[in-house]
Amino acid sequence: MSSAFIKYSSVAKINRFLHITGQRDDGYHQLETIFQFLDFGDYLHFKVNTSGEINLLTPIAGVDNNANLIVKAATALQQYCSTTQGVDIKLEKNLPMGGGLGGGSSNAATTLLALNKHWHLNLSVTELAKIGLKLGADVPVFVHGFTAFAHGIGEHLVAVDIDTPWFLVTIPDCEISTAAIFGAADLPRNTPPIDINSINLNEINIDQCHNDCENLVIKLYPEVAKLMTWLLEYAPSRLTGTGACIFSSFKDEKSALSLQSKLPNGVKSFVAKGLSQSPVINELL
């Protein structure tokens, strides 16, 4: 058994739009969105052990290891397959928590994919996605690893071929609870659904779509409102997920970097290219 850690990507996602079309009796929201990956994110390092223990060697401040989606994903996979193998894991954390970039879900998906390979479990991607769905609605898209139109509660995925702009992603100085936003009484829940059977999803005009969480987040979080107002003076900008991060779109890297250099003092940010496929898919080959 190798004594070296093996490194895998755990990239960010953005929601190019997010429509809420209704709410089910069980409280879950019916959504429509396009998930797109970015060439920026966390990295996970794995080393299989024979003790059966799942050890996250790099805890996140304020997060109990057993509540971390990395550990929960490894534990769920271990139990699903009744394997006695264990793993030591190191996390390089670059993505903000509570930012709407899917960092935790991405970490969980990379964990499922990597351990399926290194524990020699031979589960299908479909099986891994089902395990992932129990951990969070965004996990399956990271497991599948392709740009997708998602509907239902986010678990039904259809591959789409859309543009891959450059993005400036800005990070307001606040952390937003997804549960709090989805639980708000004044969150819009009646956007008409897209008829996926009668249109070509690859031809959706994303600019004409919107994020149903955006106005509520702007109302509740002045940090988001202030930064959004500033960004819209320079480029098309939109909240991703329930926020707090905002992405601004550009045709080329130079333009994105130019606006990044003008950001107000203290605003954290990164520039990244949109991707059609998560890099972890090729890393697993």
Description of the structure:
The chain is globular. It is 28% helix and 28% strand. By secondary structure, the chain is α+β, with helices and mostly antiparallel strands. The chain has helices at 69-81, 103-118, 125-133, 139-144, 178-182, 214-220, 222-232, 253-260, 280-283; strands spanning 6-23, 29-49, 54-56, 86-92, 148-152, 156-159, 166-171, 237-239, 246-250, 268-275. It has nine helices and ten strands.
In CATH, the topology is named Ribosomal Protein S5, domain 2
Distance between the termini: 19 Å
Major sheet attributes: 10 strands, mixed
In the residues, how many domains can be counted? 1
By secondary-structure content and strand pairing, the structural class works out as: alpha+beta
Strand content: 25-35%
Rg over CA atoms: 19 Å
Question: What does this entry show, briefly?
Answer:
The chain is an alpha+beta fold and 285 residues long. Helix content is 28%, strand content 28%.
